[in-house]
Amino acid sequence: MSGKPRLTYLNGRGRMEPIRWLLAAAGVEFEEVYLETKEQYDKLIKDGFLLFQQVPLVEIDGMKMVQTRAILSYIAGKYNLYGKDLKERALIDMYVEGIADLMQMILMFPFSPPDAKEKNIDSIKERATNRYFPVFEKVLKQHGQDFLVGNKFSWADVQLMEAILAVEEKVPAVLAGFPQLQVFKTKMSNMPTIKKFLQPGSPRKPPPDAHYVETVLKVFKK
């Protein structure tokens, strides 16, 4: 397949959003197909498009790729956002995995019962401020560089920027005690490709609402 990558998922963030972020940061335009019914999803499975019967699905370079982590690794490698050697790649992997653990809490948040939402926001804040953000604050302070790994823009920077903005939606003052991350956020926001992605009308999706949750439950119901 030539041309733009084609992304198949729901019209919302979910597990596709980090893929949208990474493609956008690399300056790659893409097309999207939105699943709205269980029948569409079942047809993808029946037609053999989904290796493990799961989306996201990304069609790129003649491949039908599934599994978020595999897709992200491929895109990062293809667009030179994955470090210069194995050691840098290992660092990027560690940072990305850590960020993914934090993002998992945010991913599940819209599906939590109303009476648990406040408690879950407290948990996100606690994890972000005590476990995850201190790591990146320390890394940036220690090496005094603009980026997390090898003084070069990488997949890890993109994931961290996405996570910062996602946590800020729930806890607006979360960066109050992290001056390095505040500077990092400003620099990332002004990178041309990311700046473009943050503008209204870009492929970036809004925070999940009740309609998105309803669609997820409808498409993936057993």
From TrEMBL:
The keyword Repeat does not apply. InterPro entries: Glutathione-S-Trfase_C-like, Glutathione-S-Trfase_C_sf, Glutathione_S-Trfase, Glutathione_S-Trfase_N, GST_alpha, GST_C, GST_superfamily, Thioredoxin-like_sf. It is an enzyme of class 2 (transferase). Its EC number is 2.5.1.18. The keyword Iron-sulfur does not apply. GO terms for biological process: glutathione metabolic process. It comes from the Eukaryota. Residues 85-209 form the GST C-terminal domain. Keywords: Transferase. One of its GO terms (molecular function) is glutathione transferase activity. Pfam families: GST_C_3, GST_N. Residues 3-83 form the GST N-terminal domain. PANTHER family: GLUTATHIONE S-TRANSFERASE, GLUTATHIONE TRANSFERASE. Belongs to the GST superfamily. Alpha family. This is glutathione transferase. It comes from Oriolus oriolus.
